[in-house]
Amino acid sequence: MTPEVLVRDHTIYSCVMGSRAFGLATDGSDTDRRGVFLAPTPLYWRFDKPPTHVEGPAEEQFGWELERFCELALRANPNVLECLHSPFVEHIDDTGRELLALRGAFLSRQAYQTFVRYAIGQRKKLEADVRRHGAPRWKHAMHLLRLLGSCRDLLRTGQLVIDVGDDRDRLLAVKRGEVPWRQVESWMTGLASEADAAAPGSPLPPEPDRARVEDFLVRTRRASALQSYADHEVAQGVVDGGLPG
């Protein structure tokens, strides 16, 4: 089964991400699509396993196999967690709806470490750009500010909201390079400090609910295996000259 067929026929959830989901889209913004596909269980019984992720087949499209997606979400990967909170769902089936119902099971105080660690890495890259070129990549600076604000609010409220709301105009001004770098640095530092202050008393649990997510994954794999068996029986009945029963 090709990666394209996995995405086409076995996607359980797909959404629009990027600037359009964050409330930062402009006339020239791309449409970034992210999704989750469920590889049929019998594919795992072979030596060659199905892919953990697929780029494409369309431009700006990326998808994860369900197990890999859950692994990353349990580790509080920012990009993966945000996919579960997109306001623009393009496709969802019953398994995808159950995945979305698990959004809270993935959230924990681990997000503080992963979001902030990612932010520190991105800030170092921006600072290197300033040293080399005299200015950062302003679009990246805008998205780092957005991420830091999202992290702070998640720690404060226990809810992950990815739309920037009232910060849209201010963030787009950063993207256009209209805000001096020193002010942008100060904003980043302030958001990081607010996240630091929110972390100890966050309403989020210390750890994600791994057992609940694993139960979902096992049940989904089992259902896929049973469905594949049923499909095989029907196909065999047709080959033998008629449907069974």
Secondary-structure blueprint:
Elements: H1 3-10, E1 11-17, H2 19-22, E2 32-37, E3 53-55, E4 61-65, H3 66-74, H4 78-83, E5 89-92, H5 94-101, H6 103-106, H7 110-133, H8 138-157, H9 168-175, H10 181-198, H11 210-239
Parallel strand pairs: 2-4
Antiparallel strand pairs: 1-2, 1-5, 3-4
Helix pairs in contact: 7-8, 8-9, 8-10
Gross morphology is globular
Low-confidence stretches: none
- Output the radius of gyration: 21 Å
- With strands numbered from the N-terminus, the spatial order across the biggest sheet is 3-4-2-1-5
Provide mean pLDDT, rounded. Answer: 93
| N→C terminal distance | 30 Å
Q: List the secondary-structure elements in sequence, H or E.
A: HEHEEEHHEHHHHHHH
